């Protein structure tokens, strides 16, 4: 995510909720690509940790680890880590996805 006026807060850093949105879109994209086609998913919750001020462009990396068997409905934790242009971690989140078989 580029640091630009649209995502800045009143102190000139990237707004906390903009970072949450970055993490959630990354988690959703990765979950959609990972979950078998006969399953569906929806975000159920998000726990966040603001580690440092986000003063540059940002990059999110998301992971499902360990990968579940996708047999039954389950909460699937997706880990997101956001770093700045200097590779400093500025944000961490666990986004819980509710994954269920399609009916």
Q: Please, could you describe this protein's structure?
A:
The protein has one helix at 16-34, and strands spanning 39-50, 58-63, 74-84, 89-101. With 103 residues, it is α+β, with helices and mostly antiparallel strands. It has a 4-stranded antiparallel β-sheet, with helices on one face. The longest helix is centred in the first third of the chain and has 19 residues, at 16-34. It starts with 15 loop residues before the first helix and ends with a strand. The model has no long low-confidence stretch (mean pLDDT 96).
CATH-assigned fold name: Thiol Ester Dehydrase, Chain A
Kindly state the mean pLDDT as a whole number? 96
Question: What share of the residues lie within helices?
Answer: 10-25%
Structural classification: alpha+beta
Q: How widely separated are the two ends?
A: 36 Å
Largest sheet: 4 strands, antiparallel
User: Looking at this structure, what is the CATH superfamily?
Assistant: Hotdog Thioesterase
Sheet-strand content, in percent, reads 35-45%
Which runs of at least 5 residues are low in confidence (pLDDT < 50)?
none
- Assign the CATH architecture: Roll
CATH level 1 name: Alpha Beta
Give the domain tally: 1
Number of strands: 4
Counting H and I runs of at least 4 residues, what is the number of helices? 1
